[in-house]
Amino acid sequence: MGVLTEFLKGLKVTGATMIGTIFGNELVTTQYPKEKRKKPQRFHGRHVLNRYPDGMEKCIGCELCAGVCPAKCIYVRGKDNDPDNPISPGERYGYVYEINMLRCIFCGLCVEACPTEAITMTSLFEFSTTNRDDAIYTRETLLMDEQGNVPHMFPDDPLIDENELLTADGWVRATAPSGVAAYEGVQMWQSTPGPADWSPEPSQEEIDSRSSQEHEDG
Ligand code: SF4
Ligand code: SF4
Which of 46, 59, 174, 211 would disulfide-bridge 66, Cβ 3.0–4.6 Å? Predict the structure, then answer.
């Protein structure tokens, strides 16, 4: 008898929930993509590379983001700024910047590691692709323009709300993954589209030898 009572009690709860759902009082279904739920402030979506209000790029090519990335999906190569025409306020700027979104786990550690808040995450998560190449985001894809607009690889995608790319969340060496010497000078993403000079950064020995040669030449 006790079991039957408990069973009926359970059935009553299930029935009440079912009726509430059918008549719309307790609907939890969101008609995505026509309707979108408001995302939490700290939502970790697609990355963006930011600029200062004067147009200078915030990235100084320090590679801290690449170093901290647990998925090893960031590739950065810095380049010295031309003093007469600097790209960033630092000594260097992010000459090559790539994120392999297929590897990214959206942990946000790159954002936390960045000393200049150059890399941030937005609220946009609609950026699925049909091929692997498109999942590798280059500097050209990530960098906001001088007016502060953030590009989307597929601007005609009906699923996207481009305003989400303007919503930043509330708030490590790829040239050699994990610092493995065997990768020094090896191009990481062989099929990356977009213009770039893929010449390897010189090794420390090469830099040292050049400076001592220059010192001797004097
Ligand atoms: S969010 Fe995490 S996994 Fe993705 S690029 Fe940043 S550090 Fe790497
Ligand atoms: S940590 Fe920031 S400044 Fe350094 S390379 Fe990454 S994005 Fe650029």
Answer: 174
